[in-house]
Amino acid sequence: MAGTSSPDPAWKLPAALLGGLAAGALAGAAVGHVAAGVAVAAVLEIVLLLSRIRHVTQATMAPMPDASPLRHDRFMHRSRRLASSLHDLRHAAAHLPDAIVLLDRHQRVRWFNHAAESLLGLRRPHDRGVFLQARLHGTELADWLQGGAAEPLSDVSAPGQPSRHINLTLLPFGHQQRLLLARDISHLTRLEQIRRDFVANVSHELRTPLTVIHGYLELLDPEDVPALAPVLGEMRTQSKRMGQIVEDLLTLSRLETQDRVVDERVPMAPLLATLRKEAEALSQGRHRVTLDDRAHVDLLGSPKDLHSALSNLVSNAVRYTPTDGTIAIRWELAPDGSAIYSVSDTGFGIPADHLSRLTERFYRVSSSRSRESGGTGLGLSIVKHVLNLHQAQLEIRSTPGQGSTFACRFGHARVLPAEEPESGPLEP
Q1: Yes or no: is domain 264-417 CATH 3.55.50.30?
Q2: N or C: which end of the chain has fewer CB within 10 A?
């Protein structure tokens, strides 16, 4: 009929909705949360469909002097199609495994799915309209919401369920609304605990036989059997290396089970002097080692763990820097009040695509070079865990062929004024 547009094909709306869900899945996959991306896309489509239904309904109910029965049927058909799509999307969102809670600008609950009942303890219908922060009072989630929830909250206990662990994210949604997403990671937490227990148990079991083997090797004098001298030397070297791997694994297992450290004043001047001596002893005169203490401040933390982490950076620099190279140790204050400990070298450098993985266990840029240097492949993992316990960050800069700089940045809350050295008694 002239002057009227033909109705949209029935397949267009479902296709568009499926396309939106697929786009949400792709966006979620890009950040590692496919289900969260689908959930956000589904809720957005629900809101759009509600708006469209409202528009169609208003158009249908408005007086239309020239309305014909055919045009009215088209409006009704379109409205039913939108209502059916809305029902399907709400059904899909309601049965997603991740919890979804729609909040207004005052953080009052407008809607939530079934997973939110089991993960967050919400109950329908009386929890609709409640202030979520008050509903979760006394939990880590309430403190997180009160603090603005600017960053995702990871690995916390579900409300009223200490054995369940969840990750949470609060996203902006629509006009002054928020979307709370919660994912159950209990199975991942259990697997991680099993892995930690396995590594710790195996390391403990290996320690005793390795100690026995190394002890017997020390009793064998290469001068008694000159033909076996090279073999005995290599066996001793590898025995020591295996022992160091076991010790590093036990250190990592201990650090992973710690939530915090016992804070003590860590005098940095003597620690820096010790680190320089260790570097010179390991280098055996093959490198130039410099120390520049510009900060003249101390740290608050664990002396043992900080020594372990900072020493690892120094020993790595010595191992991976060719003879006649330079290793520079610096301790300085940043303009924002943080303190930076850095170790720079003139070594081989590290390609940019390897930098993000350097703190992984046993990750090696060059396996042959690592074996020659005698490293265990665990040093930077230990550094990362120690710094995390001290709320510090590891920053890595490297240029292949020129060298690398590993810097530990400690927040101003960890920085203390250096103590004045005690003066001796005055001469008469």
Answers
A1: no
A2: C
